[in-house]
Amino acid sequence: NSTILLIVMAFLVARAVVKCGLGQRLGHVVVSLFGRSTLGLSYSIFLVDGLIAPAFPSNTARGGVIYPLVVGLAEAGGATPGNASRRRLGGYLMFSGMASLSLSSALWFTAMAANPLGAEMARSFGVTMNFGSWLVASSVPTLAAMALMPWILQRLLSPEVTKTPDAPAAAKRALAKLGPLSRDERIVAATFLGMVGLWASAGALGLDSTAIAMLGLGILLASGVLTLGDIAKEGDVLATFIWFAVLYTLSGQLNEMGFMGYLGSQLAGALGGLGRIPVYLILVVAYVLL
Known about the structure:
Blueprint: H1 2-20, H2 22-34, H3 38-52, H4 59-76, H5 87-107, H6 114-123, H7 131-157, H8 167-178, H9 183-200, H10 202-205, H11 209-222, H12 228-232, H13 235-256, H14 259-271, H15 276-289
């Protein structure tokens, strides 16, 4: 199934972003621009996560880039395990990272493995979704939530520090230490932007999303940014491939045998006499419990 292969290819491309250090550099750039306050630091986390999310089909994988950034910001503000006077500051930044990972996963079609898998299941019911149509539908609610969530979290958690005038300077020093963009970083950045651009125009140009991911991976392998040794270390990719392949096959068989239709009709009959709000609450509770 091409969708399963798309997830695997995107996982491998994401490894290149981490390996070359491009994600870390992007974090420092954003903090140097917007990090003069704790609210600005929170927005920086959301912005970095939102920018790199299209190349990471797993919010767990993106956590490998976002978590060191959050920890560095917290430590720069004095929020260390032994300093109780900055505990709420550390909590605010960490909650910002967790909320961001969830929202960015909903924003981009390729930001979470379940997104293309769900789109593939929907296709069997005549509903077609691609990178562009997903972004059009998701952009309003997710971008609105990204704009509001840092402010809401600040009101809820009340960090001890609201101004961080030293953060931009620290980020600029970190960028100076990294030096200019390396060859690998330039290749990964160009490949990443090219993949996103092709994914966004895939519907209009008649391109296959999995083929675009394979093209990106091929460029990274041919240029030496990624090696076969790097791929051999990605045991989680194989686990994801097996997990989603089996899950997709099982769900397809359940649908083909009529079980999902039967279950849906039973739920519709049981909930048919209730109003919209009670039905919504029941479905949310059931989702959380399952």
